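Tokens in:
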């Protein structure tokens, strides 16, 4: 089961996904709200925290979560304070009841990863792409439009056209034709 714990929060935060199952994992702890209470309202413990990237809106609550649950944090950049376990490109990670492959997808931020499970039909897209052809900002430090386009194209080549769900770093999850939204994001990013 995948739940966005930031749903309904008015503060500036990323989406925060709790993936329940055999291995209960929090994807991006978010920022500026009491995520610990929201986690505890659903589960007693976490097996890991996985970061799509380390922008402040995605990791502001990281210390609160690690203090409350004494849990390891997985991320692409092991030099980031708080990352305990480095995620390698193409590494397989269990989230909930499914195996996901981590795809290094820079362009929005150098340490950005997307997580894709072919068997579950699920993509955690972080801030790479969003619904309706939107895509991650490239005007921040480490942002680069050409690299972002390459990353979107990499994900597009990897995911199945029958993708069932795309969970993004901001905005609503996409459960109707998410592949088409990724394809549109690739087209839109190339146009600007």
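Residues out:
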């Amino acid at each position: 089961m995948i739940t966005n714990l930031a749903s309904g929060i008015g503060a500036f935060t990323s989406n925060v996904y709790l993936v329940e199952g055999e291995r209960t994992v929090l994807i991006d702890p978010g920022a500026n709200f009491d995520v610990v209470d929201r986690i505890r309202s659903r589960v007693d413990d976490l097996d890991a925290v996985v970061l799509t990237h380390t922008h402040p809106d995605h990791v502001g609550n990281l210390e609160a979560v690690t203090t409350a649950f004494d849990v390891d944090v997985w991320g692409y950049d092991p030099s980031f304070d708080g990352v305990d376990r480095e995620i390698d490109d193409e590494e397989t990670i269990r989230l909930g009841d499914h195996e996901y492959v981590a795809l290094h997808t820079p362009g929005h931020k150098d340490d950005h990863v997307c997580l894709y499970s072919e068997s579950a039909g699920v993509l955690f897209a972080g801030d790479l792409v969003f619904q309706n052809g939107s895509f991650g900002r490239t005007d921040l430090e480490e942002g680069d439009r050409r690299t972002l386009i390459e990353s979107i194209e990499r994900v597009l080549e990897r995911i199945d056209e029958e993708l069932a769900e795309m969970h993004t770093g901001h905005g609503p999850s996409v459960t109707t034709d998410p592949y088409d939204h990724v394809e549109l994001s690739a087209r839109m990013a190339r146009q600007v």
